[in-house]
Amino acid sequence: MSEATEATEATEATEPIKATHHDWVSSLRRTRIVVEGLGNICRSPYARLAGLRDRWAGGPAHQEMLAIAFARGFDLTGHSATQVTPQLIAWADVGLAMDRGVLDGLRGQTSSTSVTDLALYLGEGRDVPDPYAGEKAGYTTCADLVEEHAHRHLP
């Protein structure tokens, strides 16, 4: 990696986003968010990121979630399940867990010096139910919850 590339990457996360139409945007900083589920094939692909377990690493999103996403205008066909690592957590400003079990797993992977804020996607004490191996309605509920609460995590 060149020195210029390193310098760009090092400042990218700390410089304000450049405003083109809205002055208020220039005051916003980029926030790196990691959304974690258990296997990264149902809930987190819809919210778009990683899973705690490696069992499904490299695999596609679940067929039910692919179909629901497609019907709602999202294309998850290129998704490849990714396992959460301590490095990925350290990279993120915020780690959002789909349920309390995943949150506990994330806390077990962070160091005592970690500055990553870890929280539940839906807020304290509320889990996004894992639809894996369940009925289609569970996948629909999952997608509804992810969409309904996405605004809480966006600037």
Description of the molecule:
By secondary structure, the protein is α/β, with parallel strands linked by helices. Helix content is 35%, strand content 10%. It is built from six helices and four strands. The chain has a four-stranded parallel sheet. Helix 3 crosses helix 6.
Break the fold down into its secondary structure elements and pairings.
Blueprint lengths: L2 H10 L20 E5 L5 H5 L2 E2 L11 H9 L14 H6 L2 E4 L2 H10 L7 E4 L15 H14 L6
Parallel strand pairs: 1-2, 1-3, 3-4
Helix pairs in contact: 3-6
What radius of gyration results from the CA coordinates? Answer: 17 Å
User: Main β-sheet: number of strands, strand sense, barrel status?
Assistant: 4 strands, parallel
Cα end-to-end separation: 31 Å
In round numbers, the mean pLDDT is: 81
Percent helix among the residues?
Answer: 25-40%
| Secondary-structure element string | HEHEHHEHEH
Structural class: alpha/beta
Shape: globular
pLDDT < 50 runs, ≥5 residues: 1-28
| Widest sheet: strand ordering | 2-1-3-4
Strand-residue proportion? 5-15%
Q: What is the number of E strands?
A: 4
Total DSSP helices: 6
